[in-house]
Specification:
The structure is a homodimer. By secondary structure, chain A is of the alpha+beta class. In chain A, about 40% of the residues lie in helices and about 15% in strands. In chain A, the strands form three sheets. Chain A has a seven-stranded mixed sheet, with helices on both faces. In chain A, strands 11-1-12 form a three-stranded antiparallel sheet. In chain A, helix 1 (about 10-25) packs across helix 2 (about 30-45).
């Protein structure tokens, strides 16, 4: 990385994020969840889901639109199924809802070995990887998926976008074995629509399988893009469909009108979340080769995978772990000059003092 | 399809398969499971996992090797986690083990909303899609993964194969909504090693991202293939790692020595299975738009996805459903002349009468 970064202490960052959300009428719990989550994302180098992006999302789809209701109270539906909970989030802030749902799924997993929380009428939770990573750091196997804001992706062989970029996120408790949790976390499109716009600004060509034109033909020309493609042809398409069918089972409505509040026709416009947690002891046959413990076995298996001369390979979660090490080393969150400027706009909007760039530690 | 097929009644097929497995000392329950499963695969047009392939697998890795033990008894480990079971399959036939595990997961889901069965010391179960499809036809959401026989796939950016083709299979209860269960089921490699050999025989080139040579460079030349690649770059790699880490949590050993019984060094050589079932009522928020039922909502969402001019799109599971319709129409299993010949070799080996090809109904 040759870019210049400025180090913002976590407390300084969180103080501004809390103020920004409070100015939008979110309650104290929601403000704390928003600050904690964006600090966690930035700590792990997730620049696409920092506080700036979270606030932009709230501008476009959230409390300034009809997608998110500050102070909303989650309703828990009665169910006879002991390891399952079904929530109506009533459009509560996604970060607060997701933290609560993952905590509940952990409680269920502690008792039943596996637990699930289905959440209808949700707002966005930003970066699914963050929730499963934290659960994995606590020692659990965790999974989440959600339906993305807009239908921007064509089904395989299709022309018209009817699917979200629908991400999946899995976390595994491997910190003791290898120093960080394995986190597998990505959208089911090859790229996000934001990348297409970036490529267009930069005059660059897209990867060959990332997008289609209005006729459903693959295009690498950002100016001709009508919709995105799923990764891995029918395989990524299948993974994207999973989020839509899970959402349909829970309570989600037609993907093509999601987040499009103008088109009121009796359909729902809210995304849906799904969370699942497994306790590692509830999977262990406890008969590991050579008398290894479960942790030692995980370590041996992962060393086998990236051994044998596979020196260029990284394990999923390694990049985020490297970013976290860098944040720890500098004792703060690393932001670019442009990001600092964006935070200072946020500060001006909510009546806070801007950050004095000259007083922030600089790292290359 | 312009190929000629011969229609074999299910009873005639099953009678031969039962005899073939009985000749290998499998017990009655195992023989029935093997026959039922291969009939189900052939009924749905799954030619890569018919009875011929199942018996070849048993030849190479199973009861004729050290991988599978006819008549083995499954041990169930005591666990305090009510929605979870942990089994030691003791190398029992994969199809019998998988049917029993899926049944158990269904029982757990009926009670807890979600249930899981982890299976250590397994033999292969052939086609994961078959188990989740049947569970979906019974009205459940079902998932399974397993570690594939051999490490034939390189990790992303790697040179040396340390991962299996590690499949994932999901089934969803959509029969009432759209006439068949959605089944998402594929290996995490772009192609199987058998396809590489087929391309080599036919003098054809591989897809550009399917395999690597001995230096880890992508190659389309089947004769230069040293190992397979995961689909979708790091995304398919992440999905393949999931099977290995789930296996490592349960009791699986190093992937590179899996099924390689000659390399006895205190490591285990067996694959691992994981099964999970969810009851659809345990996810339903019961607040579907326009007063729809859950089934009506699923139908509306799926129609939205393949609507809007997306006429060339198929839903995952449609191909298998079309094959099943064809089998139903002809009232039997469709096999090619080469497949009939292979079945007749099996018949000769286990002392059964060969099938008289001239008496079988022919379809084009």
């Amino acid at each position: 990385m040759s870019e210049t970064f400025y180090v913002v202490p976590v407390e300084q960052h969180n103080s501004l994020v809390v103020a920004a959300y409070a100015a939008r009428q979110f309650n104290a719990e929601e403000c704390q969840a928003a600050a904690k989550f964006s600090a966690y994302a930035s700590w792990h180098g997730i620049r696409t889901h920092n506080a700036i992006k979270a606030l932009h999302l709230d501008d476009h789809f959230g409390s300034k639109s009809q997608g998110c209701v500050p102070g909303a109270v989650i309703e828990k539906r009665e169910t006879a199924f002991a390891a399952s909970q079904i929530w109506n989030a009533n459009k509560k802030l996604g970060q607060a809802t997701a933290y609560a749902a993952m905590d509940e799924a952990i409680t269920l997993a502690d008792r039943y070995g596996i637990g699930q929380v289905s959440v209808d009428n949700a707002f966005h939770y930003l970066w699914g990887g963050g929730y499963v990573m934290e659960a994995a750091q606590k020692g659990y196997i965790a999974y989440t998926n959600c339906t993305a804001a807009l239908a921007e992706v064509v089904p395989f062989m299709g022309k018209f976008p009817t699917l979200g970029t629908n991400p999946h996120s899995w976390g595994f408790p491997t910190t003791e074995a290898i120093g960080f949790p394995l986190v597998i976390d990505w959208a089911t499109s090859v790229v996000a629509m934001g990348r297409v716009q970036q490529f267009q600004r930069e005059g660059a060509q897209l990867p060959p399988d990332a997008a289609v034109d209005a006729d459903g033909k693959m295009t690498t020309d950002p100016s001709k893009v009508a919709a995105l493609s799923t990764f891995g042809k029918h395989k990524g398409y299948g993974l994207s469909i999973i989020n839509e069918i899970v959402a349909a089972l829970i309570g989600g409505s037609l993907p093509t009108i999601r987040s499009r509040w103008g088109q009121a026709n009796g359909e729902k416009h809210t995304p849906v979340f799904y969370f699942q947690v497994i306790h590692p002891d509830a999977m262990s046959g406890n008969r590991f080769a050579k008398g290894r413990t479960q942790t030692e076995n995980i370590k041996a298996v992962l060393e086998d995978i990236v051994g044998h001369g596979n020196d260029d390979c990284m394990l999923p979660g390694q990049v985020e772990a490297n970013s976290a090490a860098r944040s720890r080393q500098h004792d703060g969150l690393l932001f670019s000059a442009a990001e600092i400027a964006a935070f200072n706009e946020v500060a001006a909007q909510c009546g806070q003092e801007p950050w004095d760039q000259t007083k922030l530690k600089v790292v290359q």
